[in-house]
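Possible regression after last week's pipeline update?

I re-ran a chain I had predicted before the update to compare outputs. Posting the input and the new output here so someone can diff against the archived version. Not blocking, just want to make sure nothing changed silently.
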Amino acid sequence: MTAIEQPAEKWVGQAMRRKEDPRMITGRGRYVDDMVLSGMLYMAVIRSTEAHANITSIDTSAAKEYEGVHGVFTGEDLHDLASPMPMAWVPPGVEVKTPELWPLARGEVKYVGQAVAVVIGESKYGVVDAAEQVFVEYDPLPVVCDPEEALAEGSQLCHESLGTNQTHEWSIGGGDMDTAWAEADVVVERRIVNHRTAGSPIEPRVCIADYRAGQLTVHLTSQNPHLIRLFMSGELGIGEDSIRIIAPDVGGGFGVKIAHYPEEVIAAWASRKLSRPVKWTETRSEHMSSTIHGRDQIDYIKVGAKRDGTITGLECTAICDLGAYQTLLTPFIPSFTGFVISGCYKIPNLSFTAKGVITNKMATDATRGAGRPEATHMIEIMMDQVAAELGMDRLELRRKNFIPKEDFPAEVAIGIVYDSGDYHGSLDRLLEHVDLEAFRREQAELRNHPTHPIHRGIGFSTWMEICGLAPSRVVGPSGVGLQAGFYESSVVRVHASGSVTAYSGTAPHGQGLDTAFAQVVADRVGTTPDLVDVQHGDTGAGPFGLGTYGSRSLAVGGESLARSAIKVAEKAAKIAAHQLEAAPEDIELVNGKYSVKGSPDKGMTLAEVAGAAYVPENLPEGMEPGLEETTFYDPENFVFPFGAHACIVDVDAETGKIDVVRYVSVDDCGPAINPKLIEGQIHGGIVHALGQALYERIHYDENGQLVTGTFVDYALPSAADVPSFETDRTETPSPVNSLGVKGVGEAGTIAASPAVVNAVVDALRPVGVTFINMPLSTQAVWSAIQEAQGKPAPGDPGKQGGTWDEHGSGSAGSGPTSPSEGGGL
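New output (post-update):
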């Protein structure tokens, strides 16, 4: 590689403040709900109040007469749509039963919150009032909400036309499970529940559709505008060249804004019909009922081990509640659990089977981590469970089975190849921060306090994940193929003045990509980040891109920009060499100048080179003017970040209340582009997982009614409920990309929930609690303590619609309270 291809990185690695923050914190951000277009109408959605029913009639007459109403539409009115809503990705090698989903229900509803009709009118609040004048009559049908019951013979069917509630069964494995059990001295089995959650970004979904003169422009809160353009083209029967999707500032996504939703299609259809822009803004209750949910996986897991702690095999069958319909990635998400079923460990025999199940609920799809939190949670819970069975130290068991650093790149039993790792190193660094011997002394003192004993516990999670979603096809040495097709594109354009515009197909939703991308590009072309303008989220500018999810933005989008920038720098070097009468190989980029080696005073700035490129009076023979390059980057493999987390909790055995008193994390995402951005991602990810572990749960009752439809019932953690996080990093470069980077956006969420649960079990082992499922509400924890002590709680431990399973775990009801007793608001 030339000196131009490996710049002296001046900006990469610096903890720069985010470039985008000044406009955000001064109220100059550009969000879709702030936008008002000339002649804009508003849309309100009438949603099903039944989980499963035939629609016998829809009376829209009163709503149509309401002042300012321009139209009331039902599913029958949208008969000219060219296709139903898409389901785009399935697990490799299987056929998935997929019921048709139209933007507005046609004759039957399958879940509470399904869109039945819309009102379009002049006033944002007037359409809501008019929507109350739409009267829908239903003939209720039997409901199936429990995914395990849905698989039972003779179960009520959600979609009669499919003849079953099981959409598919997909398996992956390696080695031989008979050998695993034959070699095992102990076999531990558990039923681990990873319950349903909501994404809950600070900004709900919003769209404005504007159809004019045969051209459709949609402003949208989306993580992947280019894909939305593709899908809407098919649904509306409009060429992609006639559709422009713009995703400006997006206030959080966490996966739920990857999906393509009915409201987007309805608004576009209505705009075309009414010849006016149409705006729809989601309410928080609509978000809870009608934006995709995450997780909802029941894992039956079995682990075998020898007496010395060697894991001989791991087998898991996952019952995956997909909801009533399938959105973009719904059936594919559980596959990610299978792809990382080894965790950090060298397990010779593996088997994972995912069973997709349809129920009368909103669809599940990608939520931060998407299948990998489920895998890490069950693996790390089981490591503690196996250690207890063996009477072995939990960390010793992990170390015994870690994939050694020298084995990387490491092929695991299922055939996937991990790029790089140092699992011992991250755990060693964690223990530099956590003095275990001192903790155990403190734990014993608190537990034995004569007047107010406190049950303090520590839990660990050593995690890894597969991310950087991109490769068109990855085939491991064992022949295991995994298709993704999520390449990424970029354009780097240096203007004649020397300023730079970088176009990325990756559209951020709060990660700070404007800053990180500017740092990467600035180093490679020889400028400063403040002179690099990063553009994204607009299908009318820049090449086709696949968006942001799966911790791919930097490892794929950033690498694409790096390669475009290097191409620009190489051309700049040739121009400078020609201008300076030197050989191109003698030009190096040092301190922002393209200089002749050994003669640093003989050089050109980027602005001088750009001037020569755009005023082509003296360019090398045959060179085209301009200074701009494009890259479509399709990496050879995923990337595999990793780390080690520790959580310390106090549990009040009399009430079941949990306080998280300390949280320490050590994560490895390769070389840091911007340490501040890494810390922010880790903090947010940990809180996301703490929320699931302790408070958050989407809950439907036995009739399919959504019990947790607001933040009064769905408890989010507040700042008062979490400690100040202690973070540290190790840096193990990935060989997959030139930056050496791995994704970090999902790290905290993947790692934290098992650390919390393991800490609670560690605290409560003296009172007999050895296993418990999330969410760890005060009710669930108190009930587990009562049962462990042979004192069953009176009445139903899962009050407010919760359930109690036979494996010692109470599931929270409709209103799990946070330690601050404020519901997490």
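Follow-up from reviewer: compared with the archived run. The mean pLDDT is 93. Marking as no regression found.
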